[in-house]
Amino acid sequence: MLSYLPEFVDPLGFADKRRRVVGELPLALFDRIEEFLFERTGSIRVELEFGKDGRWSVVTGWVEADLVLQCQLCLDRLPWSVRLRVALGVVASLEEADRLPASCEPLLFDGGAPIRLSDLVQDELVLAVPPIPQHAVCGDNAPPGPQAENGKRENPFAVLAQLKNNDSKFS
Ligand SMILES: [Zn+2]
Question: Which residues form a coiled coil (predicted)?
């Protein structure tokens, strides 16, 4: 689902208005990770809330993507799912950044021209891409995780049914 995202954000103004931006950005905007991508189509899901934490303007939320990187050893596809927690505190200087709560990373903003949203997201995203993407074992293209443990997993519908039963007890 593609929804509207502003091209630019003003972190201070948005924080005052407690704005929330939710939507998807096309992967083509992210030139700094492009060289690592095996597939350049797709999108980055973004959910950000601008608000206040004490005297700080903060940006919190998530950046999510199902990337397909290129393994630097065998040059084959390497699926790479990313779900990044974003917690930024808006600061005007590096000195101010030192006073931020430990839970926040600094977002340098001088109060002037708004920031391009894709730049803000890209700064986060580059941290989630390994410097040299590679398979744990090349040639073994089975995606890690779910498939291997299929046998052990509970039927999700059984869990849903159970939840419904619990609900009805209280209604
Ligand atoms: Zn490989």
Answer: none
